[in-house]
Amino acid sequence: MKYLPLFFLPVLALADGPKDNLADNVRPVPPIGIDVPEADVKALTQGLTELRAAIDAAVKAQSKNPKLADLLPDVEIFYKGVDWALKFKEIHKPAEIKSALETLAEGKLRAEQLKNGQSPWTTQKGLVVRGYRSKIDGSVQPYGLVIPDSYNGAATRLDVWCHGRGETLSELSFIDQRRKQTGNVAPANTIVLHPYGRYCCANKFAGEMDLLEALDHAKKFYHVDEDRTLVRGFSMGGAAAWQFAVNYSDKWCAANPGAGFSETPEFLNVFQTEDVTKVPWYEKTLWHWYNATDSAVNLFNTPTVAYSGEIDKQKQAADIMEKYLKAENIDLVHIIGPQTAHKIHPDSLIEIERRLADIAAVGRDRSPDEIHFATWFLRYNKMHWVAVNGLGESWKQARVDAKITGAKEVTVKTSNVTALSLDMPAGHCPFSVQEAPVVKIDGKELTVAKPKSDRSWLVHLRKQDGQWAVVASAQEEGKLTKHHGLSGPIDDAFMGSFLYVKPTGTALNDKVGAWSKAEMERAVFEWRRQFRGDAPAKADKDISEADMANNNLILWGDPQSNAVLAKIIAKLPIQWTQDKLIANGKTYDSKTHAPVLVYPNPLNPKRYVVINSSFTYREYDYLNNARQVAKLPDWAIVDFTQPKSTRTPGGISDAGFFGETWEWKK
Hints:
Layout: H1 38-61, H2 68-87, H3 95-115, E1 126-133, E2 140-147, E3 156-162, H4 171-180, E4 190-195, H5 206-219, E5 224-234, H6 236-247, E6 254-258, H7 265-271, H8 281-286, E7 305-309, H9 316-327, E8 333-337, H10 346-362, E9 370-375, E10 382-383, E11 386-391, E12 398-406, E13 409-415, E14 417-424, E15 438-441, E16 444-447, E17 457-464, E18 467-471, E19 498-502, H11 510-531, E20 537-539, H12 545-550, E21 552-555, H13 563-568, E22 574-576, E23 580-583, E24 586-589, E25 593-601, E26 604-611, E27 635-639, E28 651-656
Parallel strand pairs: 3-4, 3-5, 5-6, 7-8, 13-15, 19-20, 19-21, 21-26
Antiparallel strand pairs: 1-2, 2-4, 9-12, 10-11, 11-14, 12-13, 14-17, 15-16, 17-18, 22-23, 23-24, 25-26, 25-27, 27-28
Helix pairs in contact: 1-2, 1-3, 2-3, 2-4, 3-4
Pfam family, one: Peptidase_S9
Protein name: Peptidase S9 prolyl oligopeptidase catalytic domain-containing protein
GO molecular function: serine-type peptidase activity
C-alpha cells in the first residue's frame, strides 16, 4: 500500500506564535467559514433531508438487529459532518461544497445498505471511515482506518496516528481526508487508525477518551493484535503521542511521537515566547496532568522512538524529554531529520519504520518482571500489574518501583502511595500456586495470598497507622476518599458520562442567576465548538434515579434555583445562602460571589457533582494546544464584580484542591 508523500499532504493550521499572546484580541477557533452560494445551500439541505429519511428507514427496518448500535454511527457521521458544517458555517473553502455532496452520497448508500441488513464497509480494504457513539455525551464521532490488502481476519498490528493541528478540521473535512488520503504512515500489514480526537485539543480530555473509544469500537470489527498496538503522531499529534505514551504506558507495544510538545511551561516560552511566571499556583500544579516530562520514568515500560526535524522549533519537545529521561537513566532514541523544519524527513521515516517493525516483531510484554510508575493523581493509577489505589497527597509525584526478585518474592518501593494492588491476570503469575509469595514493600515483609489455579494473583495492600498491611479490598468500604474515577479536578468530571442540570427556580440573587445562566449557555456553545458534541441536558425537576446513577451531574444555578442542588447542599462542604457563601473557612458576599467545584455526589458517591462549571480552559487557550490544560482545581470562588474574560469566568478570589478524603485543605 502506498502513502502520499509528505509534501503532497495538506498543511494544517498552526498556532500563530506571539500574536496569539493577546488575551484581549482572540481570534475565533474554529474560524468562520465562507458564504455558501444559495443554490448549494438548497442542494445540501435537500440532501440532508433525504439522508435523514434514509437513516430513519434503516433504523426502523433493523430495529431488532443486535449490531445496529455499533453500525448506525457509521452512517450518522456523514449526516453530522454535512449538517454541522452547513449549520455552523464551517465550510471553509469552495472545494468542501463538493466534498459535502460526496459525503451525502456515501451516507445515503450506507443507509440503504444498512436498511437491507448489509454493512459492506466493515469488510472493505483500504481507506474506511467509521464512527462510534461516545459514552461521554452520546455524540457520534468519526474515525478513519487504513485496512491493508493483506488483512484476512488474523491478529494484526495496529498503529494509532494522531493528527496535527487543524483549526478548520471539521467533521466534514476530516471525513473527506479519511476517504481520500492514506496519511503520513502506512506500514506493511498494519491497520492504521486515525482518531478525530474531538477536533483540535491535542487528544486531551474528551479527545483523550475519543482515541480509546475509537480503538474499542474498531476492535469489535477487526482482529487487532493487543500486543502489537502502537501510538504515533506528528506536530499536535506528536504531543498526543507523548501524553498517551506516559499516561497509558502499559497499553502500547511502542510509541512514536514526532515534534509537538511534551509539556506546557517551557514549550510556551520557546515556541510562543509567552511569560508563564505569573500563572496561578494551582494552574502550574495542574500542568502535571499532561506534562509528559513529569512522568517520564513511565517510558521505562514503553519502547519509544522520537522524531524531530533538525531545524524545527518543536524539536524542543523531544530535547526536554531526553533531559528528563536521562535523569531516570534512560537514553532516548531520537531520530533527527537533517536540515528539516516541521515535517518528517523521508530517510528518517524509513529508519523509524525499521525500528518500530523490530519492536512490533517482539510485541508488548504483558507481564514484565520490573515496573516503574509515576503518577500525580488517580486518573492514571495503573501500570501492568501494579494499581495505585490511594495517595498521600494528590498533585505531588507518587511513585512505585516494583520487581519480581525471586521465585516467590516481589520487592516494592513506594513514595506518596497509601494503598495499592498487585494484580496479575489469569495465566500471567510466575509464582507457584502451592506457595504463598512474599511482598517486601518499603522494607516491610508481608506474606500474602497464593496465586489461584488459573495463575492469576491479586493482593491489596494499604498503609494502616503508617505501616503496610494486607487488606481485603482496594477501597475502604463506607469511607469517602479520592480514588480512580473520583479524584478531581473539575475537568475530570468531563472524562465520563455527564449531564447538564438546568435550574427552573428563582435565583438567590439576580447577579448570581445572570452569571450562572451566561456560563451555562457558554458551556453548551463551547462544548459543541471544542469537543464536537451536544452537551446532554435536563431540567432539575426531571432528573431521575437512573440519571444520577449513570452520569456526573453538572449543576447550574444555586440552592434556590436548582432543585437537585437544594437536595444536596447540606451535604456539600460549603454553606450558601442568600446573604453569604462560606468556603474553606472564609465568608463571601453571595450577591457577588459563587462557587465552582467538583465533589462526590451525596446521592451517588460513585459519581461527581460539579457546580457551575464546564471544562475550565477558555477562548485564549484555544489558540495554542499547550495551553489547553485544566485551569481550575477542585474548587474556586468566583468574584463576578470582576469581569469574565477569555481566561477566567470572573475574578478568582480563592481556589484549591480538596484533601484525600475530600476535606478542605488550608
